[in-house]
Amino acid sequence: MKELRTLYWKASKLYVLDQRVLPHRVRYVVAVDYRGVARAIKDMTVRGAPAIGVAAAYGLALAAVRTKGLNPQRALERLQRAADVLRSTRPTAVNLFWAIDRVLSRAERAVTNGENLADAVLEEAHRMAEEDVEVNRTIGRNGAQLVRDGARVMTYCNAGALATVGYGTALGVIRAAVEQGKRVFVYVPETRPKLQGARLTSFELKTAGIEHKVISDNTAPFLMSRGEVDLVVVGADRILATSGHVINKIGTLSLALAANYFGVPFYVAAPVSTIDFVRSLPQVKIEERDEREVLEVSGKRIAPRGVRAINYAFDVTPPELVRGIITERGVIRPDELMALRERAGV
Ligand code: MRU
Predict the structure, then answer these.
(1) 88, 46, 86: which is closest to 64 by C-alpha?
(2) Are the C-beta atoms of 193 and 35 separated by less than 8 Å?
(3) Position 160 confidence tier, pLDDT thresholds 50, 70, 90
(4) 48 CA distance to ligand 1 middle (Å)
(5) Contact present, 188 and 155 (Cβ < 8 Å)
(6) 108 is in which domain, residue-wise?
(7) Which protein residue has the closest C-alpha to ligand 1 atom 6?
(8) 288-316 pLDDT, tens per residue?
(9) d(C-alpha 343, C-alpha 140), whole Å
């Protein structure tokens, strides 16, 4: 089966693969304006840090089309307003903000140079989509050297093609190792409460023909204690260059703690666009989602009526638990991130 595209642009509309209904149904939601894209990001029709960044870029392309006939200053103001709505959808993944800022600065350049605004914004969104796949392939190649033939790798959540435009970050590392002819077995924690592991990662690995099993989240440390895990590779929503902290799906911290206790190398795979070179930990908002996601399973309530829940979507892993960060610029230690900024010119 051919890999499904997370999102694509056709006839001035954005088609978004509806990840809420995978793996049982394959359907696309069509966004005709930036508000539709904002809704798709917020309700997790599209999810995963790089994918929501590129979706937001296309959201701005939809907004730019509607500025036709306005004077350049008014058109830029419209775009700014659309950007504010898109920024307010999910607060934690830095790729969302990175992508919006990149498109806005391209829009400003277009206005200064007297170019067609809508064309310039759409081209930039397309470029970002293409770059995403290229960058992930490079991350995959850089990470594959850490995966030996016969390795049993644990991942978390879904950091695959579905979380990006294609190929994936953590799953990209696994894909690349398999493409090099290595035998790899993957443990897939289900990832409560939204079950991205059980629903999405297993769907991708099944499609790619990569051997794997789904485990309940609380099984992970037990497998590590028995020496049955050789390596952990997860994705990230934001990596703080100022301190080396890694922010990723809630439950990542438990994996990192267990991996370190039992001597299993713990790696993070992410593009440079996931690195926040500016903010420190207190300045980052950790998304809290509707408590019903925890209190219900598939829309059916499991806790007694009236009971409340805590539903942080992400957690923070301290740098000392992270063996390395696999980027398109190579594998680096959390304390080398600031130096990368100079090298990468970002
Ligand atoms: O809430 P989600 O499903 O958007 O969270 C996704 C993750 O935590 C991924 O690990 C992260 O975005 C990296 S995706 C390449």
Answers:
(1) 86
(2) no
(3) very high
(4) 4
(5) yes
(6) 7-136
(7) 48
(8) 999 999 999 988 999 999 999 999 999 99
(9) 20
Domain CATH number, residue 154:
3.40.50.10470
229: tokens are 């895990």
Extended beta strands in the chain, E state: 7-10, 13-17, 28-31, 151-154, 184-189, 212-215, 231-234, 238-240, 246-249, 266-269, 275-276, 296-297, 300-301, 314-317, 324-327, 330-332
Q: What is the pLDDT of residues 119-155, one digit of tens each?
A: 999 999 999 999 999 999 999 999 999 999 999 999 9
Between the CA of 67 and the centroid of ligand 1 the distance, in Å, is: 32
- Which tokens hold the place of 267? 């790696």
Domain final residue pick, 105, 136, 167: 136
Axis-axis angle for helices 117-144, 49-65 (nearest 10): 170
Question: The CATH number of the domain where 80 resides is what?
Answer: 1.20.120.420
Question: Which among 20, 45, 249, 314 is the best mutation to test ligand 1's pocket, defined by most ligand atoms within 8 Å of the CB?
Answer: 249
Tell me the one-letter amino acid at 199: R
Amino acid letter, 313: A
Cα separations (Å) of 301 from 59, 178, 293?
34, 40, 10
For atom 8 of ligand 1, the residue with the nearest CA is 249
Contacts of 222 (CB under 8 A, 6+ apart): none
Whole-number Å distance, alpha carbon 314 to ligand 1 midpoint, is 9
What burial letters (b/e) apply to 286-309, b meaning 16+ CB within 10 Å?
Answer: bbebeeeebbeeeeeeeeeeeeee
**How many structural domains comprise the chain?**
2
Please give all residues whose beta carbon lies within 6 A of any atom in ligand 1, as ranges: 47-50, 93, 157, 159, 163-164, 169, 196, 235-237, 248-249, 313
Average pLDDT, the chain: 96
Model pLDDT for residues 235-251, shown as the tens digit of each residue: 999 999 999 999 999 99
Residue keyed to tokens 């301290």: 318
**In terms of domains, do 234 and 104 share one?**
no
- For residue 226, the Cα-to-chain-centroid distance in whole angstroms is 30
Q: What is the pTM of this model?
A: 0.96
Contact status, residue 159 vs residue 269, Cβ threshold 8 Å: yes
Please identify every residue annotated as catalytic: 237
